[in-house]
Amino acid sequence: MIQTRYELACELTRQMLTVSPSGAFFDHLQYRDCCRIAEAIERGESLCDILSMAEAKRLPDASSWLKKKL
């Protein structure tokens, strides 16, 4: 099944929210970074451009997810 950019962005956000152990605090800065990456996905930016974003560099789990999905 091919996912739309919107669906991929939503999946990334869900993935990042569930990476932390149950009961762990999810930093609002991490959430902001995840949202910026999701916005780049929705805009259709290239994988190379997204991986070079400072936000992606701060979230190594997001980088590995992006490499698999995009």
- Overall number of domains: 1
> Which band does the percent of strand residues land in?
under 5%
The helix fraction, in percent, is over 70%
Number of strands: 0
> Structural class, from secondary structure content?
mainly alpha
Distance between the ends: 14 Å
Task: Count up the helices.
Answer: 5
Mean pLDDT equals 85
Radius of gyration: 11 Å
Biggest sheet character: none
What order do the helices and strands come in, and which of them pair?
Elements: H1 5-19, H2 28-43, H3 47-51, H4 54-58, H5 60-69
What's the short version?
The protein contains 5 helices and no strands. The chain is mainly alpha-helical and 70 residues long. The protein has one domain (5-69).
Question: Which keywords apply here?
Answer:
single chain, 70 residues, mainly alpha, 73% helix, 0% strand
Structure, described:
- By secondary structure, this protein is an all-alpha fold.
- It has one domain.
- It is 73% helix and 0% strand.
- It has five helices and no strands.
- Helix 1 runs antiparallel to helix 2.
- The protein is globular.
- The two termini are 14 Å apart.
- The mean pLDDT is 85.
